[in-house]
Specification:
The protein is of the alpha/beta class. It has 2 domains: 102 residues, Aminohydrolase, N-terminal nucleophile (Ntn) domain (Glutamine Phosphoribosylpyrophosphate, subunit 1, domain 1, 4-Layer Sandwich); 168 residues, Rossmann fold (3-Layer(aba) Sandwich), CATH 3.40.50. It has 13 helices and 17 strands. The strands form 6 sheets. The protein has a 4-stranded antiparallel β-sheet with strand order 1-2-6-7, with no helix packed on it. Strands 11-14-15-16 form a 4-stranded parallel β-sheet, sandwiched between helices.
Length: 334
């Protein structure tokens, strides 16, 4: 779309053509555009996605996650700023300009909950540390008597599970092992086989840890509920006397229109069931979620809230940009 809009701008210089194109786009984007002798880097005005700049010798590098810089030996410089910053890198060096009016950032909260790697930094703070804080807040909001705490799907839930364990004073144990050598399960010929392969083949309960124990299974989120149901079943088959599920994010009740594949409310278990109904569906002895206030506090508490905020649209339905999910585009007429 951006390339098409740049083309339509006619014979404007590339920088002006890009600015013109971005002025017509609403939503979430983080991009780099390469020409023969320049690189243009930009972020949507709300900064819904992360994007960072690093240095590798005399060169600049761009990545959506800061952990990529560590892998290639680059040093982190700074994030691309929300509010419509366009960065131009060429033989003359590095310059930045605004292509729209600055706005308060609303970084996708699911970047903290699930998407980003724990060894990345978002807005100057480590993702693993943020997830631990979410787990601690969850333990305060939804305490439970239990013998062990374990993560749901390694590795995305481990940080929150450790935080929950520390705050609750319940030991953290590796109750589930991830099989790192299993094949890709999405190519199985039926949904039933995909679901079975997705959990039973990829995860194994550690019977010696969970047998005869009351287990708290901490996970990052529940989308459709299929994985949670099968994990609870695995733990109980391994001898867990109780399985209490704690989710380090609020219930996902609304579609995301910013590039995440949850565009249909019918796919979201929390959009169509109460928490008690969800508990029955997944077979847990209890089920609780982190509140929207608890999530925002965990992420934003030590930042200038005038400059930084998070998008919680999938939890609250309050989208930071205009969306048109039900718009019907009329047919073209001569």
């Amino acid at each position: 779309m951006i390339a098409h809009l740049i083309k339509r701008s006619g014979h404007l210089p590339m920088e002006e053509a890009i600015v013109s194109a971005l002025g017509m786009i609403k939503g979430a984007y983080a991009f780099s555009i390469l020409t023969e002798d320049q690189m243009f880097v930009g972020l949507d005005p709300r900064g819904l996605r992360p994007l960072s700049i690093g240095r590798l010798g005399d060169a600049y590098v761009v990545a959506s996650e800061t952990c990529a810089f560590d892998l290639i030996g680059a040093t982190y410089e700074r994030e691309v700023r929300p509010g419509g910053e366009l960065i131009i890198i060429d033989e003359d060096g590095f310059k930045a300009k605004q292509f729209t009016t600055p706005m308060q950032r609303t970084l996708c909260s699911m970047e903290y909950v699930y998407f980003s790697r724990p060894d990345s930094d978002l807005n100057g703070k480590n993702v693993h540390a943020n997830r631990k804080t979410m787990g601690k807040q969850l333990a305060i909001e939804a305490p439970v008597e239990a013998d062990v705490v374990t993560g749901g799907v390694p590795d995305s839930s481990i940080s929150a599970a450790i935080g929950f364990s520390e705050a609750a004073g319940i030991p953290y144990e590796l109750g589930l092992i991830k099989n790192r050598y299993v094949g890709r399960t999405f190519i199985q010929p039926s949904q039933e086989l995909r679901e079975q392969g997705g959990v039973k083949m990829k995860l194994s309960p550690v019977r010696g840890i969970v047998d005869g124990k009351r287990v708290v299974m901490v996970d990052d989120s529940i989308v459709r509920g299929t994985t949670s149901r099968r994990i609870v079943r695995l733990l109980k088959e391994a001898g867990a006397t109780e399985v209490h599920v704690r989710i380090a994010s609020p219930p996902i009740q609304n579609p995301c229109y910013y590039g995440i594949d949850t565009s249909n409310k019918g796919e979201l278990i929390a959009a169509n069931n109460s928490i008690e109904e969800m508990r029955e569906i997944i077979g847990a002895d209890s089920l609780s979620f982190l509140s929207t206030e608890g999530l925002e506090t965990s992420i934003v508490a030590d930042r200038d809230q005038k400059q930084f905020g998070v998008c919680q649209a999938c939890f609250t339905g309050n989208y930071p940009t205009e969306i048109y999910p039900d718009t019907v585009i009329p047919a073209y007429k001569e």
